[in-house]
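Could you help me review a protein record that somebody else here produced? What it holds is a sequence and that sequence's fold in token form. I need someone to confirm that the token line plausibly describes how this chain folds. Take the sequence as given and treat only the tokens as open to question. This is what I was given:
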Amino acid sequence: MKKRTTVYHYLNSLSINLFGNFKQHYPWLLVVAIAYLFLFPFSSLVAVTPKPETRVKTIVQQTKINYTKYPKILVFMADKGNRGKGKLIAVNTKEGKIDGAWNALSGVGGEENQPMRGPIPSQGVVNTTQYQVVISPLTLSNPGIAGKFYKINPHLVSVGDVTRGDFGIHADRNVPGTAGCIGIESESDWISFKALMTDYDGAGLKTIPLLVSYR
């Protein structure tokens, strides 16, 4: 009986120690778990590798970013075969959690080198480490925007021999789809995104990196 009691306490202690180590050294486990909840709608799409719930972690880890300088990162993950529909996710890299996630799209169907139709090119295609989203928005009256516009830099990028640009994040208004910007689909998501950007602005952030990944 004593042995069983000793073993029981030992296992409890071991479990606590392991949990403490994981909690301290692997905050990305939390990111993956939360990302899975946000990205569950992707399960209706064709399965690919890596799985959606691991893509946030994979994309961020493969990109060389100074996390001390940029503790917040935006990740846009979408399916080009489904008119560029996907998720825009705000990742808190310092704390290992998701600050927000919104249904979004880019383009109206097409390839990354197609002006006015294709989605915003992924950073690998345009040979840059990451895009930068300006936290303080512009206000535009264009029918497809009609409101706040969070500019994405660089202003122009090259996809082979094709130059594209003038990208931003805005509400998807007028008709579904964009000319390459990232459009947030629902009004409630748009309000939530703007509120988070306001919080980031209040915290002193001027820009936030944006990573783009397609399946």
User: Anything to note?
Assistant: Residues 2-25 form the longest helix (24 residues). Residues 1-19, 21-26, 32-52 have pLDDT under 50 and may be disordered.
